[in-house]
Amino acid sequence: MSTVVGEMDQHDHHHAPSGISRWLFTTNHKDIGSMYLWFSFIMFLVGGSMAMVIRAELFQPGLQLVDPHFFNQMTTVHGLIMVFGAVMPAFTGLANWMIPMMIGAPDMALPRMNNWSFWILPFAFAILLASLFMEGGGPAFGWTFYAPLSTTYSSDSTALFVFSVHIMGISSIMGAINVIVTIMNMRAPGMSYMKMPLFVWTWFITAFLLIAVMPVLAGAVTMVLTDKYFGTSFFDAAGGGDPVMFQHIFWFFGHPEVYIMILPSFGIISAIIPAFSRKRLFGYASMVYATAAIAGLSFLVWAHHMFTTGMPVFAELFFMYCTMLISIPTGVKVFNWVATMWRGAMTFETPMLFALAFVILFTIGGFSGLMLAITPIDFQYHDTYFVVAHFHYVLVSGAIFSIMAAAYYWLPKWTGHMYDEKLGKLHFWASLISVNVLFFPMHFAGLAGMPRRIPDYSLAFADINQIVSIGGFAFGLSQLIFLWVVIKCVKGGEKAPAKPWEGAEGLEWTVPSPAPYHTFDTPPEVK
Amino acid sequence: MSIKLITALMAMAPMAAQASSQYNLTQGVTDISQRVFDLHMTIFYICCAIGLIVFGAMFWAVIHHRKSKGSKPASFHENVKVEILWTVIPFVILIGMAIPATSTLIAMEDTSEADVTVLVTGSQWKWHYKYLESDVEYFSLLATQREQIENKLEKGENYLLEVDRPLVIPTGKKVRFLITSDDVIHSWWVPDFAVKKDANPGFINEAWTQVNEPGIYRGQCAELCGKDHGYMPVVVIAKSPADYESWLAEQEEIQRQAKAEEQRLLAMSMEMDELMELGERVYIGSCAACHQANGEGIPGVFPGLKGSAMVTSDMDAHIDIVVNGKSGTAMQAFGNQLSLKELAAVITYERNAWGNNTGETVQAADVNAFMNQ
């Protein structure tokens, strides 16, 4: 008892402020992680309600609820919020919570910067959302903001959009620097690189991707800003520029960006599947190499988003081959997960269910990705609902499912309570069924020729869109179950032991649940 | 008259081309589109086979290797041989996919030795077709009525996939498309030809097709191009070479006559009522997408005309912006899109509608005089 008190004295000599200032001024990685996670969940609901507007308008052919200009604002801001506001901050939140605990560090290496990188985010999104109420409306040019639609032909909210993206970028870069510095300098004695949990490894690589490409995005938005307001012609042929150059710059950021949104998922799944299979991860080393290979290749495939822009045939071939190659390391990962399950002793708690769904649905997204890589058929798929189906399979039933899995897996560690397993399973099955009703028929709509980003469609697509919309509403509602589970788990529930999962491995399970405010003040010894 | 003819033709034409499949890629009507379809199915089946094996193994493990069945975890966690094997086998499969993909792609990108060349120009939100070997050129606009979109009328069979003047091409000939844009990026797409190419402002892209069967083929703009991106269909009619030649000759004659008519009109003066009636029709067709039917525009995006200073006072500036557009904005130059008579009517309409009652009329001769200044 006395030792516990002694420890508390040690920590509390700088007495933590309470109330709102605790959260405003905190430099604690767990507090900041929680704020990131809550923020991303709020953004997930905001972006999701925009998707509900989209699906409500598309429920029937004809214009019913919104005008096309507002529809375009919804598709644009939905995309921006989900990418920069939901998925990326959720991963940063998980990194904040878990990386120090996984490598036996007391906190992130740069805690004040950590505070700042979170607290600028709400301002970025306040600016973006406020722009929707400006005269002329918010950004309406798609989250990819192709010039000249985003320059000469956009409304004045573009300036707000640009500044908001700048702030998001600064936040991401600072978060990434923090992750890299923490991992390189603060590993516990004995924790060599090749002993790090895969979540740490995948985030380590992701952080390098972020530092490499977020400045490119900043450059792209800055050029949009100067083209629109200061008379430059980066993307205007009349002044010697090139609108296609915008797409090269954007996708040089954009393709690594999609791996930024999936590599940490690989890390999460590589923690959960072994835990519930009660068997060591198969092919740890090849998992690390595969992640690095995917990250490296991600810089060589950007133009597969641009096959119809009229590139020389040799460029098309180069980007087709490189893109096809990505399926090899990705395949290795899937095979490794299956091999991990093989001859394990599996149980199926909610985190495992989400992880299993991830493996299957992400792989389906991978298959459609391979189809999209084949240039001659991409000409048919490009900019149709087939693409929409593809990237929602990898981002919703991929990235988001992995985040759900992570939340269920670590909730006992975060809150000290077990979540309600029944409600968790209900959330899983409701999400699994509705996500497929929502996104699977989109493949058919796309193949049959429905372009993306249209507010109205020909009668041939009416049935499919109705089914998709019903799936969409169901998926949206299902996420409220998750909110309920989390609140219930924070408030109380069965007391969680230090290690609630029989097969789980890692330093985070050696500390009590809930994890004390400060962990690993003295680094653990890793053998 | 030709418009009526085409409309009648469209109504009669068999729907076979589009009815191919509601849930899969079209096989299309060209050799290339057939190759693309075959490639699509091949890759799809390969993916299915891989999926069957991987998911099969996974479900086998899920069913048999579960704790509740007393399964004891094995201790293996790597196997270099297996890992090399499942790296090499996918690589070999990929090579098998890349070979037919490469040859199809090279064939698709070979635009040499075309028989007919059409310049396709996208603009917000219509297509313009110009036959480079003759004088024929025209705009192609959505023909679906506003009332159908607003759910006031029942939607027709080709809802949103019908245009006033489709592109006409000959069958059995290699038709080359030069594709560009006047404003933002559009994308010209006809699924039955497996042709989708972006229209980039300031640059010209090439694509080609050779259609085997006469018919009507429908597509849409595929690249987000602003507010009415969803209302920018592409319709192509393929006719036998003989029919195509006579159509082309007819079009040339019509365009010649229209020019002669234009000259004759210069001497004539139209009444206010007549101008307002024609003007409203032109306004709904060409202006209302942005400035809105009530003339109020969309604040912050498209300026309103109701009560606008330019529209109620400075007539020269008004004619100038309609004829020449305004660079750096979405306002297009309508001087080459509308006839003198239509320009005069729409300007008159804008100056007198929605309470703008200036009482002024603008005649074709006024517009002509302005254009010749």
UniProtKB/TrEMBL annotation, chain A:
Species for this entry: Pseudidiomarina sediminum
UniProt domain Cytochrome oxidase subunit I profile: residue ranges: 23-527
Subcellular locations according to the entry: Cell membrane; Membrane
Primary residence: membrane
Pfam family of the protein (one): COX1
Protein name (Swiss-Prot/TrEMBL): Cytochrome c oxidase subunit 1
GO MF annotation: an example: cytochrome-c oxidase activity
Any one of the GO BP annotations: respiratory electron transport chain
Physiological role: Cytochrome c oxidase is the component of the respiratory chain that catalyzes the reduction of oxygen to water. Subunits 1-3 form the functional core of the enzyme complex. CO I is the catalytic subunit of the enzyme. Electrons originating in cytochrome c are transferred via the copper A center of subunit 2 and heme A of subunit 1 to the bimetallic center formed by heme A3 and copper B.
